[in-house]
Write a structure and sequence with these properties.
Rossmann fold, globular, DNA polymerase, domain 1, 6-stranded parallel sheet, 6 strands, 10% strand, 225 residues, alpha/beta
Length: 225
């Protein structure tokens, strides 16, 4: 019998919901307000990075606000979009979250967005999707550092090696893997190099709890080879 994960740890932006276009538009407008320009390729370079890192990049492009002011400004724009348009779900994410809840598998949201945004998303979902929320302002180190995932497993009281993490970006995959979780990459806006250390799924659509258990079993098998 396949063992279910002790918990499934979810990234948010680009994994559960596709907010990246909102972030990119907000960054582009903010830099333009200060007389600069911001290409799509430059915006893609920030996908999965911590917001304080992103703020420093925007400062280097001429934005004279403080890091916290930049983060608050961008977050409010994205939050307004979500309030007006609803959650832009990624295919299969809602269904898998609901199956996890119905199967009794614990879940955590592990995001580099700040808590007020993470909490709005969690609260907007029409069922109790997450037992724990760890946001970018809850930890001292952003992804790809493992701090956020380690904090989530600490709050849940589980071993990271018994968990599965779902991510969409290179920094996120690196963070979850460094924490010791069996990791699934579901690429969206940026490619993921399949180096054999994590599973790559083109989509969550049609995926089940049993599929997550299989990824965990494969990760355990690799660890004892």
């Amino acid at each position: 019998m396949t063992t279910l994960p002790a918990a499934v740890l979810w990234d948010m932006d680009g994994t559960i919901i596709d907010t990246e276009p909102h972030w990119m538009a907000a960054e582009t407008q903010l830099i333009a307000d200060y007389g600069g320009s911001w290409s799509h390729e430059e915006a893609l370079s920030l996908v999965g990075q911590g917001l304080w890192h992103s703020a420093r990049v925007l400062q280097s492009r001429g934005v004279t606000l403080s890091e916290d002011e930049i983060i608050d400004h961008l977050t409010e724009i994205v939050l307004d979009q979500l309030r007006r348009s609803g959650l832009p779900w990624r295919p299969g994410a809602r269904e898998l979250l609901l199956e996890l809840r119905d199967s009794g598998v614990r879940t955590a949201l592990v995001t580099m967005s700040i808590r007020k945004m993470a909490q709005l998303v969690a609260d907007t979902i029409d069922f109790d999707a997450f037992e724990v929320v760890v946001a970018g302002d809850d930890v001292a180190h952003s992804k790809p550092h493992p701090a956020a995932y380690l904090r989530a497993t600490e709050l849940l009281g589980v071993d990271p090696a018994d968990c599965v993490a779902i991510e969409d970006s290179p920094p996120g995959v690196a963070s979850a893997s460094a924490a010791g979780a069996a990791t699934i990459g579901v690429p969206l806006h940026v490619p993921l190099l399949d180096d054999g250390t994590f599973a790559v799924w083109p989509t969550l659509a049609g995926r089940t709890v049993d599929d997550l258990a299989a990824v965990l079993a494969d990760a355990r098998a690799r660890s004892i080879v």
